[in-house]
Amino acid sequence: MKREDLQLLQKREWCKGCGICVAFCPTKVLIIDTDDKVTIANEDACIKCRQCEQRCPDYAIFLEEASDV
Amino acid sequence: MRSSQLVEKYFRTKNLPHIWCPGCSLGIATRSLVVAIDELGLDKNKTVIVSGIGCSSRAVGYLDFNTIHTTHGRALAFATGVKLANPELHVIVISGDGDASAIGGNHLIHAARRNIDLTLLIFNNNIYGMTGGQFSPTTPHAALGTTAPFGVVEQPFDLVKLAEGAGATYVARGTAFHVNPLVKYYKNAIEHKGFSMVETICICPTYYGRQNKSGTAVQMMHWLKDSFVLNTAYDKMPEEKRQGKHVYGEFVKKDLPEYVEEYVGIIERLKGEEDA
To answer: Quick one: which of A36, B89, B94, B201 has the fewest CB in 10 Å?
Structure first.
């Protein structure tokens, strides 16, 4: 699967707001919003490195094929 | 909103979100196991995941394989029975530091000594989280626990050295921060013929972190990132730079006769003698 076909997606109701994805995102794509949940704030900056997906303890953020959604 | 395909395929999504605390890295370790299983292409119906009791042992409730949530410390004993009864199954045991090295300490050393073809994953968060933060055999010296309000006076187990000393033929240690090597160790452990043990250094921000003022989950993940060094890099480091560093990597990889094969071999031999 090519990187450009991947899209950053979230499962908001599973997020517990720990902030690990926000802290280790190399391009600062993510924020924790006022509801203590992750929000994709700057999607254009995403380099699709999967570091958020790999370290999300709650499976609440992930990259998948865009056409699939 | 849907969840990722990997999660849909291997998790019992009706049980999610899991009960682990915000920032608890047991979810990271559990996902890493699923990635390893997916990359190895194991048949879900021929994979058995066995756990004992504790926060980490809750993982089997979320995993969509043949799973058994057993009694405290006895996961390896149940797993031994499963493997002997049906040697073609991949049997993976998930255990915590307390479950594996305290309550189940004897099962651990004897499963390792026998070199039975099981994969033991110890999710080590250095504390009994589920029961409220009592110190475990891996809680560091002088760290605080609810049963050690003035600091632990004991020395901790080094689970890698323990497993190696007891005879395990594949031994590795990874961390919940260094996910790619962790997945590699899980894969190598599952593929290894014989007893394999991977210790995963996990963070417990709620019960270990609060008592020991380790900071937030993010700060504890930074601690994993900054203080754990790959064993091959550690070996080349000058003595003064080793201060405060911990080691991850693969430590033991060797071939010895495997227990189930030896056992089945004797049965076959005796059957042959009877027939003759």
So the answer is: A36
B126 and B176 Cβ atoms separated by less than 8 Å: no
Q: Which of B112, B221, B127, B193 is nearest to B160 (CA)?
A: B112
pLDDT in tens, A6-33: 999 999 999 999 999 999 999 999 999 9
DSSP assignment of A13-34 equals GG-----HHHHH-TT--EEE-T
Q: Which residues contact A59 (CB under 8 A, 6 or more apart)?
A: A11, A14, B3, B4, B7, B11, B16, B27, B31
Measured between beta carbons, the chain B residues lying within 8 angstroms of A38 are none
CA-wise closest residue to B4 among A55, A18, A63, A2: A63
Q: Looking at the predicted complex, does its ipTM rise above 0.85?
A: yes
- A contacts of B18 (beta carbons < 8 Å): 58
How many Å lie between the alpha carbon of B224 and the closest alpha carbon of chain A?
A: 13
Phi and psi for A3 in degrees, rounded to 5?
A: -60, -40
Q: How far is CA B86 from CA B47, B48, B52, B264, in A?
A: 11, 11, 20, 11
**CATH number assigned to the domain covering A3-61:** 3.30.70.20
Tens of pLDDT, residue by residue over B87-131, are 999 999 999 999 999 999 999 999 999 999 999 999 999 999 999
Q: Number of structural domains, chain B?
A: 1
Residue A66 Cα, gap to closest chain B Cα (Å): 12
Which structural domain, as residue segments, surrounds residue B265? 5-275
- Give the residue ranges of DSSP H helices in B105-203: 105-114, 159-166, 179-191
- Looking up residue B85, the CATH number of its domain turns out to be 3.40.50.970
Backbone angles phi, psi at A61, to 5 degrees: -140, 135
Gyration radius of chain A's alpha carbons: 11
Please indicate whether, in this complex, the C-beta atoms of B27 and A12 are within 8 angstroms of each other: no
Residues 6+ apart with CB under 8 A from B43: none
